[in-house]
Amino acid sequence: MFRSLTGCLAFLLLFLFIVGPLSAEEYTGKLKSVDEKTGRIAFTVGKVNKSLILAKDAQIFHKPAQGVVVVDSPDGLKGSTKTLKLLPEGMNLKVTTKKVGTAEVITKLVTSGE
């Protein structure tokens, strides 16, 4: 009995370590502010305020009404808060996050001019 209990516990721990980091959240809301120094993006989802750090390798896209413009590029703009600083407050956005340790960080940010 002890052997089967140990086996189940080992399987559960393995499952949590494999599936846990793969979980990602997605939020749709409105941009409030961008802090260049800390890389923190503040936005609202409904009536809830969220403030998350932008990952250094985050993908950033801007979708104006005419089409898709990729804001990040291979020449160093990837994850750039300076680029995001140009976007107006209240702009629609979709944020994809992942857990890094105990923190939730932004891995993909799509803004929309619509």
Can you tag this structure with a few keywords?
alpha+beta, 2 helices, OB fold (Dihydrolipoamide Acetyltransferase, E2P), 5-stranded mixed barrel, 114 residues
Report the top-level CATH class.
Mainly Beta
Mean pLDDT: 75
Based on CA inertia axes, which overall geometry fits? elongated
Radius of gyration: 18 Å
Instruction: Give the count of structural domains.
Output: 1
Q: Count all strands and give the number.
A: 6
Strand order of the largest sheet: 1-2-3-6-5
Order of helices and strands: HEEEEHEE
CATH homologous superfamily annotation: Copper binding periplasmic protein CusF
Structural classification? alpha+beta
- Just name the CATH architecture: Beta Barrel
Strand content: over 45%
What low-confidence regions span 5 or more consecutive residues with pLDDT below 50? 73-78
Summarize the structure.
This protein is α+β, with helices and mostly antiparallel strands. The chain has one domain (24-112): Copper binding periplasmic protein CusF (OB fold (Dihydrolipoamide Acetyltransferase, E2P)), CATH 2.40.50.
Structural summary, described in words:
The model is unreliable at 73-78 (pLDDT under 50). The chain has helices at 2-19, 81-84, and strands at 24-35, 40-45, 48-63, 69-70, 92-100, 103-112. A 5-stranded mixed β-barrel has the order 1-2-3-6-5. The protein has one domain (24-112): Copper binding periplasmic protein CusF (OB fold (Dihydrolipoamide Acetyltransferase, E2P), Beta Barrel), CATH 2.40.50.320. It has 114 residues and is α+β, with helices and mostly antiparallel strands. The protein is built from 2 helices and 6 strands, in the order αββββαββ.
